[in-house]
Amino acid sequence: MSDRRPNPPGWVPPRAPYNPYDPSDKRPPQGYPSEFTTPGGHYNQLKETMKKLQYHSIPQSEIYPGQFKQLRRVQNYSKFYRGASLAVKVGTAGVVVYSMFIHKWEGDNVFSRFYQWRCRVQAMLFGINAVKPEDVNPAKQMRLGNADVDTNIDSSVGLQRPHKKHMLEAERRKQLEELQ
Known about the structure:
Order of helices and strands: HHHHHH
Distance between the termini: 100 Å
Helix content: 40-55%
Strand content: under 5%
Number of helices: 6
Largest sheet: none
Region (Disordered): 1-38
């Protein structure tokens, strides 16, 4: 059983302005709201009148004649948004610092340009230990191949003469044979 009080005597439930599903609902003499047409010419007439009167909805500025007042936004950059943007900036800076200085890529590739650049930055900011100066200024890599042989590999001289990499491979195989 509901706890609702009964309606007062003579109370009639309110009717909607128009119920299309109710056959007893008569069409109002002024028409339904959906049938109203927008007064197209009225707006043009109003616009012309406002131009003649030089009336604008924005108030004129007292300080700058011929200009209008600029309405100021209220709390367009609230404390929450300021804090959220600060948190994003701090988080991004933390990820960048972590990926550059803390993340250990030492074992992966110490000859990479990124690692050498990171070592240089660490040397400038914090100083470096005894091992890292060699990583900051790496030794020049030796070139494999003979510099005096012309670049045309198809020449008979180029094909007959062994290169430095061939000599290194022969020495490695020779050392393996001596160990066995």
